[in-house]
Design a protein that fits this description.
There is one protein chain. This protein is of the alpha/beta class. The protein folds into two domains: 2-62, no CATH class; 65-187, Rossmann fold, CATH 3.40.50. The protein contains four helices and nine strands, in the order βββαβββαβαβαβ. It has helices at 46-61, 109-114, 138-151, 166-176; strands at 2-3, 12-23, 26-36, 64-67, 73-80, 88-93, 117-122, 158-163, 181-187. The longest helix is centred in the N-terminal third of the chain and has 16 residues, at 46-61. It comes from Marchantia polymorpha subsp. ruderalis. This is AB hydrolase-1 domain-containing protein. Pfam families: Abhydrolase_1. Residues 90-189 form the AB hydrolase-1 domain.
C-alpha cells in the first residue's frame, strides 16, 4: 500500500506484509510497516518515479528473488517450516491475475508446521515482481520452475500445486520433468487434458 503526499515526491511509503489473509473472494493485505522515504527533491516523470518507488519497496519490503541462468529474476515467497525441517516441499503456481502473495489461500502456518511442509510461492514470469519472458513457452516455463527448485534446494523431487491458469503449468511440468515431481495437485485448473503427460514416478 502506497500513500503519495505530493505528485512529484514520495515522502511516505507504507509497506504491506507478505501475509495474505483469505477473506471471502478477496485477498487483503495487512499493513505492518510505515517508513519515511524521500526519493528526490527534483521533479520526476511518472515512469521514473515508479521505478524509484519500486526500488524503495524492494529494499524495505525484503523481496526474495532467484536469478535464472538467463539473467531474469523470479520473485518468491516462503511459508511454513524451515527448509532443513521440511518433510515435504511444495511450489505453488498462481492463476491469472494473481501472484505469489495469494500462495495457498486459507492455509495457516500452524497447519504447515504440523505436517512439516514448506511452501514456495512464485510470481510466474511477467507477474508481480518477476521479470517478463517475451519468448515464454510451456517448456521454458518448466525450465524456470526447475531452476527455482534447484536454487532453493527443494530436493530431487518436490510437490506442485496449481490453481486456475497455474494448473496448466503444473500439467506442463508433469509432461517435461516428471522425474522431479513427488506429486501434483490441481485446483480448478485451466489446461488441455489431451496433452501427453508422462507417468509421475
Amino acid at each position: 500500500m502506497i500513500c503519495l503526499y505530493s505528485p512529484t515526491t514520495v515522502k511516505r511509503v507504507y509497506i504491506a506484509s507478505e501475509e495474505v489473509r483469505w477473506n471471502g473472494y478477496y485477498n487483503t493485505l495487512q499493513i505492518t510497516q510505515e517508513r519515511e522515504c524521500n526519493l528526490s527533491n527534483r521533479r520526476r516523470g511518472p515512469a521514473e518515479l515508479l521505478d524509484s518507488l519500486m526500488a524503495v519497496l524492494e529494499e524495505l519490503g525484503g523481496l526474495k528473488y532467484v536469478r535464472l541462468a538467463s539473467g531474469r529474476r523470479i520473485c518468491y515467497k516462503e511459508q511454513g517450516v524451515r527448509r532443513e525441517e521440511a518433510k515435504r516441499q511444495l511450489m505453488v503456481l498462481h492463476g491469472l491475475g494473481s501472484s505469489r502473495l495469494a500462495s495457498m489461500p486459507g492455509v495457516s502456518d500452524t497447519l504447515l508446521k504440523a505436517y512439516g511442509v514448506k511452501i514456495v510461492a512464485i510470481d510466474r514470469p511477467g507477474y508481480g515482481r518477476s521479470d517478463c519472458d517475451t519468448e515464454q513457452t510451456f517448456k521454458s516455463s518448466v525450465q524456470d520452475i526447475e531452476e527455482v527448485a534447484d536454487a532453493l534446494s527443494m530436493g530431487d523431487k518436490f510437490w506442485l500445486l496449481g490453481y486456475s491458469c497455474g494448473g496448466a503449468f503444473c500439467w506442463a511440468c508433469a509432461r517435461y520433468i516428471p522425474h522431479r515431481l513427488a506429486g501434483v495437485c490441481l485446483w480448478a485448473p485451466a489446461g488441455n487434458y489431451y496433452w501427453k503427460v508422462n507417468y509421475i514416478t
